[in-house]
Amino acid sequence: MQSVEIRLNRLLTIDTDLLEQQDIDLSPDLAATYGPTEEAAQKVKHYYRFWILPQLWIGINFDRLTLLALFDRNREILENVLAVILAILVAFLGSILLIQGFFRDIWVFQFCLVIASCQYSLLKSVQPDSSSPRHGHNRIIAYSRPVYFCICCGLIWLLDYGSRNLTATKFKLYGITFTNPLVFISARDLVIVFTLCFPIVFFIGLLPQVNTFVMYLCEQLDIHIFGGNATTSLLAALYSFICSIVAVALLYGLCYGALKDSWDGQHIPVLFSIFCGLLVAVSYHLSRQSSDPSVLFSLVQSKIFPKTEEKNPEDPLSEVKDPLPEKLRNSVSERLQSDLVVCIVIGVLYFAIHVSTVFTVLQPALKYVLYTLVGFVGFVTHYVLPQVRKQLPWHCFSHPLLKTLEYNQYEVRILIYTALLDAATMMWFEKLHVWLLFVEKNIIYPLIVLNELSSSAETIASPKKLNTELGALMITVAGLKLLRSSFSSPTYQYVTVIFTVLFFKFDYEAFSETMLLDLFFMSILFNKLWELLYKLQFVYTYIAPWQITWGSAFHAFAQPFAVPHSAMLFIQAAVSAFFSTPLNPFLGSAIFITSYVRPVKFWERDYNTKRVDHSNTRLASQLDRNPGSDDNNLNSIFYEHLTRSLQHSLCGDLLLGRWGNYSTGDCFILASDYLNALVHLIEIGNGLVTFQLRGLEFRGTYCQQREVEAITEGVEEDEGFCCCEPGHIPHMLSFNAAFSQRWLAWEVIVTKYILEGYSITDNSAASMLQVFDLRKVLTTYYVKGIIYYVTTSSKLEEWLANETMQEGLRLCADRNYVDVDPTFNPNIDEDYDHRLAGISRESFCVIYLNWIEYCSSRRAKPVDVDKDSSLVTLCYGLCVLGRRALGTASHHMSSNLESFLYGLHALFKGDFRISSIRDEWIFADMELLRKVVVPGIRMSIKLHQDHFTSPDEYDDPTVLYEAIVSHEKNLVIAHEGDPAWRSAVLANSPSLLALRHVMDDGTNEYKIIMLNRRYLSFRVIKVNKECVRGLWAGQQQELVFLRNRNPERGSIQNAKQALRNMINSSCDQPIGYPIFVSPLTTSYSDSHEQLKDILGGPISLGNIRNFIVSTWHRLRKGCGAGCNSGGNIEDSDTGGGTSCTGNNATTANNPHSNVTQGSIGNPGQGSGTGLHPPVTSYPPTLGTSHSSHSVQSGLVRQSPARASVASQSSYCYSSRHSSLRMSTTGFVPCRRSSTSQISLRNLPSSIQSRLSMVNQMEPSGQSGLACVQHGLPSSSSSSQSIPACKHHTLVGFLATEGGQSSATDAQPGNTLSPANNSHSRKAEVIYRVQIVDPSQILEGINLSKRKELQWPDEGIRLKAGRNSWKDWSPQEGMEGHVIHRWVPCSRDPGTRSHIDKAVLLVQIDDKYVTVIETGVLELGAEV
Question: pLDDT tens across 685-712, in order?
């Protein structure tokens, strides 16, 4: 062994980076003094500087690699301190046990070996360890042996001390005396044997690293003792465990005080009732809280220390913001506010129930009623309904017995541009499932627990069972555990309750330790029994001889050897179920071994995919190597968006029963046409689910494709029965199909699960640009795009006045200028001048001047567009620069398709190389490249795609301009490496487009990727969770510890019965190869709209206040619209009154139609010809509404929008709540209210006389329908009014009067509409409406190419859609005023609706919303 030379040296300065380098010490003090010849002849010695103190080191005669082979390297001082402390503790505790004589003979030597191994592991740990979760050096694993040794030694000493110092009090449960010294001695001896077996234990890998063990221990104690949920990290496990301890400590005092009071058969202390009420409230609150406190801490920090983020406009990532953190904070805030109210209500309610002595007076009948209820409701909710909704109910039927509306659809049909987007249709059995679940966990289970608390508390606290102190603790812990687990996951609670009642009431009543403790301990036992059942199902399915798939020769060798050890396998399964450890197949074979304990989360590393894009790569690598261009990296964004969609809807869908039964740790596979993802449910709370999604490759391996086929193919057509094919009973499975479905580790739950996602369309760019004419079209759109963006830019005036640009474009301003760059090609450039062999200014103007003029005319402030203008010069210079940049990027080989595509992709991602001195003027303002040229090349690709559907449509400048505006607002065009692409996908942009360069497996192709947001259909496959955990553990052991790097190893070959390849592929990299692994994401039920429609939203103080205020406003408006203090109520107010209707064939043939028709005529014409009011057809019973609103709301919703009298004359008449209502024949339901009356006092005398004449001449009936007759009083009375069914007469007179008296009205023959007469539009009575059905909102109608509606103003059209709303969206209950109305069959195109319903343009604050009239509730006119 080499000698060690130690020399001391003090240094004033030191570079710590030298520790990372190959250490050839260059210090003159340590360098050997050799002569010139001796230095060359002898071997150079290497030294390593070992730092004792910050400025004190010693030199060691080892180089770095040799020293690392001998000792581990500690990077921090804390590691050194911890290692010294652990070494001292190991020696101290070991010496104590040796002195006290726990070991004799050969076992002393064995124990000393264990001590030595624990201490040496602090110097040099085993790498890789069998329980290490990662490749490479694991720093934490070095402390595992000494920590476990200290724990075991401490247990040995404590158990021995307890066996010798027992109190006289006996603690006995189920016949076992736990204070018996024999119990302590047996436990002590078991720990001693375990300690002596440390070498074997750590070699096999039965103990995890320390942090994993602490997380596992806290999680298991929290779940089984306190009824908590699974945890997501070590911090979350400690936080959740501490919260449970605090809750028990707070409740313990109340319980102890209540047990000290006097008890009798008919009296329970009030303090115990208070304890029960608080116990239910605290359990409810804890069940609704996530174990991860990071979001809660972030919420508190944002409220106490709000951060003001300063955005840098130069930073391209300043506008990219992830909306998920803010959404999670809002959800947590809403839940906390809701809990503040609900917990108080729950506590008071259950206190009142308990204090009413209902649990004492109604015994014993009450408890049997509750047991019967929980058995019936649980059986129906968690067994019958999930079975009949499965794809193959009971593995006997060939289709679900209860089908969703989408089941028979080939694909989900959703209207994209009409804002009628909705998720899967709500079915009656889904509502039934939600209500049964709500009643079960919020009413039945709390009543059962309170009943058992009342009947068992006195017995438990008695000296015969437990004393008061220990009894109070057991009562508190048992009650908290049962209530929390019932609130969080009631799926299998009914089985536990029914079995416990039957077992301890009818079979072994003598062994019962009160029903409360029986339920507590049986819930723990049943949890382990369910886990054992899943493990045995996995084992028997995996090793069944008729479906075994041998992936290698070892599998065939191991298969027969596994049969004799089936008894040992069963023992391993029982032990692994007790400790909740995975049971993994060794190297994927039929031999199973037990792994080390893991939490429900399973993976110890917080691994999640880091997408490669321009935000985390260097610019040089982006331009040269184009990192992240492989399909897997680019496609990972779709799984990320799928994660966000699940975050929004998963918890609600689980509560609706769309995924069947579920519990903590369950695994599901979502399979679609190209998406295959494994969803791991980790934490199941009350109204929350924490999950992790693992996305597999789009184009997987051969084995993956075989398993994908297995989960997507149907078995309904199978007709086999053993060896023959006699067929099967209709709607039933054949014998072979039913048998094979029972021997699978997975089952299909749903075949049509609807989830929001993106449909992907990819077209080969080479096929679209193969012909020169198609490349010419693309270049033309490229030039027009540049012209559009430069003319619509807000900086155009600044650019035109820039002297540097003017100087650079001075040559281009000459009319005879021609650019003869060789990159221009007559086959590609439409404005190529053959005479001058280049692109001249004259030829450019011939082709593009018309487009420049039109774009300039659309500006709010037009500029000069003459041939010699500065704008034309700027456009010419930019277009020449853009095409020269395309040619440069194409290596001046535009005639070659491959080079052209390469240059097109370079420009698309923003790689512009300015190589000509004539283009250097662009450096005066680089915004021209970023905001003009780059959007131009990107928009040209979309326009080129549109060219295939309608080649000549874009020849019209108007159509082309509107198309660009529409695409700019509704379509995101970006490179997939741009952070804006990810931001747009996560923001649910409706459409996206990108040009993708794929270089994978020798392929080199360009694709145009088009994404359209829509609802996708998935198959939901539930996988045995113990199968997943076992296969994951086997892969980790095989790759990390056994280091099997064979890419075709047998453990990843396909096994359809267990989906072995898909599960192993989903492991964390580099063990598996998923293309996306999401972070742990929490979904809340409050974000699911359909669930909120059933149960209502969160109950908070703010929501209660808003509900009271809105109800009061509705009552005021309803009373004002339906009551009149000075007259009688008309018959129509009761819902069945007489109405005046016209002789309209359409109305008569369709009595249930809500169609509204009408137009505005010429005010200068007489009545009946100049005015065409709208017509509304009413249902036979006006009191019946199509919605859940009141009769009055139904009447208002069925009524047409208000048409103003003032828009037809120079008089303006307004009322409290609405303007005049009109129909084609002039008759509407007669309602005597402020909304249907107009005072005659202010009317002109000519109109009053004509009204009197018409009233006398009007017949008493029309078309067989009677009209209520009203006499016309004199105009001197201030309280006289005109009924609504006479409005048509009044409006006609007003039109005539207005045409004769107003000098500023439109001339006869002109059409008066809001589009051409702003004065009349302002004079209308504006009325308010409230949105009651958001599905009737037309989000994209303003961007439709068909131009169904004529808009009153172009600026309003651009703002009346989702393209302008951004993050804002109209919600139910929002109010606004109507500024325009389109009705069906109107003679005026400006007011004509494109559908058979009236459409309203509503202004809400500064937003414009287009909505169908049936989706709003009229609130009255604005005064």
Answer: 999 999 999 999 887 788 888 888 889 8
Task: Please count the residues of the chain.
Answer: 1423
1119 vs 662: which has the higher pLDDT? 662
For 203-220, b/e burial (b = at least 16 CB within 10 A) is ebbbbbbbebbbbbebbb
316, amino acid identity? P
Return the higher-pLDDT residue of 317 and 927: 927
Cα pseudo-dihedral 984, 989, 992, 997, rounded to 10:
30
Task: Please count the other Cβ atoms lying within 10 Å of the Cβ belonging to residue 292.
Answer: 21
Half-sphere exposure of 143 (CA within 13 A, CB side): 18
Average pLDDT value for the chain: 78
Nearest residue to 794 via CA among 865, 859, 878, 871: 859
Among 69-83, 464-478, 837-851, which stretch is predicted with the lowest mean pLDDT?
69-83
Return d(Cα 246, Cα 230) in angstroms, integer.
Answer: 18
Number of Cα atoms under 13 Å in the Cβ half of residue 370: 21
The residues that bridge with 671 in the sheet, in sequence order, are 676, 1019
CA atoms of 135 and 1044, how far apart (whole Å): 12
* Lookup: tokens for 214: 């602490």
Tell me: the pLDDT tens digits for 938-988? 999 999 988 888 778 888 889 999 999 999 988 999 988 888 888 889 888
> For residues 832 and 879, is the Cβ–Cβ distance under 8 A?
no
Question: Is the CB of residue 658 less than 8 Å from the CB of residue 753?
Answer: yes
pLDDT at 1182 over 50: no
C-alpha span between 1357 and 706 (Å, rounded): 52
pLDDT at 98: 92
Q: What is the 3-state secondary structure (H, E, C) of 625-692?
A: CCCCCCHHHHHHHHHHHHHHHHHHHHHHHHHCCCCCCCCCCCEEEEECCCCEEEEEEEEEECCEEEEE
Q: For residue 1044, is pLDDT > 70?
A: yes
**How far, CA to CA in Å, does 617 sit from each of 403, 614, 1240?**
49, 5, 77
- 118, 145 Cβ separation under 8 angstroms: yes
Query: What is d(CA 1402, CA 635) in angstroms, rounded to the nearest whole number?
Result: 40
Cα–Cα distance between 922 and 924 in angstroms, integer? 5
Examine the pLDDT at 17 and tell me if it is beyond 80. Answer: no
Whole-angstrom Cα distance, residue 1192 to residue 205?
Answer: 73
- For residues 1231 and 1133, is the Cβ–Cβ distance under 8 A? yes
**Cα atoms in the 13 Å half-sphere on the side-chain side of 148:** 27
